[in-house]
Write a structure and sequence with these properties.
Shape: globular
CATH superfamily of one domain: SP0561-like
Distance between the termini: 57 Å
Helix content: 40-55%
CATH topology of one domain: SP0561-like
Number of strands: 0
Number of helices: 6
Largest sheet: none
Order of helices and strands: HHHHHH
């Protein structure tokens, strides 16, 4: 007697739904296409201030104009910038949400990729 076995099914949670590039994000419900800017923002907030300045020299002026005046002093910049992420610096500085969002948006325009790819 020959027994036919069914093909194995992939291991997934029983309630899982396949998602494509337009499917919703599990956490926010936002389409995946809209998560790219949020992902860039999160990466920027997790980046050390010194790395942001090294990668984009114009960022120093943006940060100083945004209320991070100690960075104007080279000694303070050398002491502080490598020790904190941008997200930590924003919390320490205590900027209002609107001011912090405006600063992040300005920095993101500096770090925006110039070519697709």
């Amino acid at each position: 007697m020959t027994q036919v076995m069914a093909a194995p099914t992939p291991l997934r949670h029983p309630g899982a739904v396949a998602r494509n590039a337009q499917g919703p994000d599990r956490r926010s419900g936002a389409p995946l296409a809209q998560r790219a800017p949020a992902a860039r923002r999160e990466r920027l907030l997790a980046t050390r201030v010194s790395r942001v300045i090294e990668a984009h020299p114009d960022a120093l002026g943006v940060l100083i104009d945004g209320g991070f005046t100690p960075l104007a002093n080279p000694a303070m910049r050398l002491a502080l910038a490598p020790t904190v992420t941008l997200g930590q610096a924003l919390r320490i500085r205590g900027l209002e949400d609107a001011a912090a969002d405006a600063l992040i948006d300005r920095l993101l325009t500096l770090t925006a990729p110039t070519e697709e790819g």
